[in-house]
Amino acid sequence: SGSANKPTYPIGPNGKPLAPEDLCPEALSAVCTVCNGTEATDENDLGLCDRCDKAFHQHCHRPPVERFGNLEDQWFCESCTAELAKLRGLPVVAGDFAWVKRGAQPP
């Protein structure tokens, strides 16, 4: 089955999986593109766009991000989502988000 190869992560005190410390080392020095803040919390996480590498807090990004997806997913900021949709000829409206499984390469 496909779940046999799926990585497992330890569960944190909030019941959500914890990412391994080496999953995304650049995230440790990430600075929000909007507010220049570096603090990440469960309520306002700091995520990196997997295309442009810009960092955004959930509440700073426009539109706000409900969640950045699973640990295995890629996340694209609104600007990159719009660019990818245009390159791929996909209809996207403001507020749409695109997630893809890791290993898939954006153009």
List keywords for this structure.
single chain, 107 residues, little secondary structure, two-stranded antiparallel ribbon, 1 helix, 10% helix, 11% strand
Q: What summary fits the major beta sheet?
A: 2 strands, antiparallel
Strand order in space, largest sheet: 1-2
Strand portion: 5-15%
Count of discrete alpha- or pi-helical segments spanning 4 or more residues: 1
Rg from Cα: 15 Å
Helix content: 10-25%
General shape: globular
| H/E series | EEEHE
Determine the oligomeric state from the structure. Answer: single chain
Number of E-type strands: 4
Distance between the termini: 30 Å
Uncertain runs are none
How do the strands and helices of this protein lay out in sequence?
Elements: E1 46-48, E2 55-57, E3 73-75, H1 78-88, E4 99-101
Antiparallel strand pairs: 1-2, 3-4
Written description of the protein model:
Helix content is about 10%, strand content about 10%. It contains one helix and four strands. A two-stranded antiparallel sheet has the order 1-2. Strands 3-4 form a two-stranded antiparallel sheet. It is globular. The mean pLDDT is about 75.
Question: How would you briefly describe this protein structure?
Answer:
The chain is mostly loops and 107 residues long. The chain is 10% helix and 11% strand.
